[in-house]
TrEMBL record:
It comes from Cycloclasticus zancles 78-ME. Residues 1-25 form the signal peptide. Keywords: Signal. This is Uncharacterized protein. InterPro entries: TAT_signal.
Length: 194
């Protein structure tokens, strides 16, 4: 009988082989007063992800790489930076694959949010610690069309550590909501209470 872990790893490997070749931008930077190592992923096919990654400090992008090629980079980062932070603005399937690999190294989701356009409405659904969920949700709402830039500029304020997640949702009406992707922003870090 397969263990749950073996099943997930097998399913993940199979699904990765079936994934379309998403173009990714990624970068590793040391910024902020705490100098926490940071690894950032963004889907280069999405205009919002491009806007996000262009606002992250010290850009060093690798473009046109299959997400499967990032697995070794992610594993290396987790080994070398056990107290680091991994963030991104990607498709949900990419987030799922990266999240599963990071869990093997003790990195867990501390923040995630879906960003969905429908008609002239933009919906942000934020899952985060109780203390920060309302602040992040209202900040994304106030940022309006510039929400990817807000995320890029505030990755360091995203929660870290072990906290119970709550979900908050906000909707805003925008004039231009043509052809936007369904994206997930997220942040992974090690649990502090280990």
């Amino acid at each position: 009988m397969l263990s749950r872990r073996t099943f997930i790893k097998s399913a993940l490997a199979t699904n990765v082989a079936l994934l379309a070749r998403p173009s990714q931008a990624l970068q590793q930077v040391l910024t902020g007063s705490e100098e926490i190592p940071l690894l950032v992923f963004a889907d280069e096919h999405s205009a919002h992800s491009k806007h996000f990654i262009s606002n992250v400090a010290e850009r060093k992008s690798n473009i046109d790489l299959d997400i499967g090629q990032h697995f070794d980079l992610l594993r290396e980062f987790c080994k070398e930076s056990p107290m680091g932070q991994i963030s991104g603005l990607t498709r949900d399937s990419d987030f799922f694959a990266l999240e599963q690999i990071a869990k093997d190294f003790g990195f867990y989701t501390q923040y995630s949010a879906t960003h969905h356009y429908s008609g002239n409405m933009l919906t942000h659904e934020v899952s985060s610690s109780k203390d920060s969920a309302e602040l992040i949700t209202s900040s994304l709402k106030n940022a309006k069309e510039q929400w990817p830039q807000w995320l890029a500029n505030h990755m360091r304020v995203l929660p870290r550590g072990n906290a119970q997640l709550v979900t908050q949702k906000t909707q805003i009406s925008l004039a231009n909501t043509d052809q936007h992707d369904f994206l997930v922003s997220w942040s992974l870090s090690p649990n502090k209470n280990k």
